[in-house]
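Hi there,

I know you've been waiting on this one. I reran it after we fixed the sequence typo, so this is the corrected version. Both the input and the resulting structure follow.
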Amino acid sequence: MRAVNVHAVAVLLGEKGLLLRGRSGAGKSALALALLERFRLKGDFAALVADDRVLVEACAGRLIARPHPALAGMIEARGLGILNLRYERACRLHAIVDVSAPGETPPRLPQEGEKSAEVAGVTLPRVVAAGCDDVSVARITLFLQGITTN
C-alpha cells in the first residue's frame, strides 16, 4: 500500500507510537512536546517522529509512521518558531489521539465506536484530548499504559 500524508504529529513514547490528529491550531505540536518532556523526565525513551505531515503506511496489518522528508526533525513551537529535534525515521503506531479544538469538550464517557479510529485501513485504539494541559498529558499517559505492543 502507498503511504498516506496525514496532517498530524507522530511521537514514539517508550515502545508505543502515537498519532496526534486535530485541526490546525488545536495544539498537536504543543501536546507532543509536553508528552516528550513528561516521558523523558520519567527516564523513559521519547522521540519525535514527524510534525505536521506524517506519512502513514499500512504494512502487514500495522501502521508505520515516517516524517515527510522536507520536515524531518522539525517541529513548530508557537512563540519559539521551528525547533530541530533528534527524531526517529519511523515507528509503528499503536494509538491515536484526536486533539479537540479550543472550546470543544471531549466526551465524558465515550461510546464504544469512539474508542477506536481507522487510518489507511488499520483500526487503532483512540482517545480524545482537550488541547495541551497537564490533565490531557496525564490522561494520554494512562491511556497508553493500557495498550499492548504485540
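Quick highlight: The chain has a mean pLDDT of 92.

Best,
R. S.
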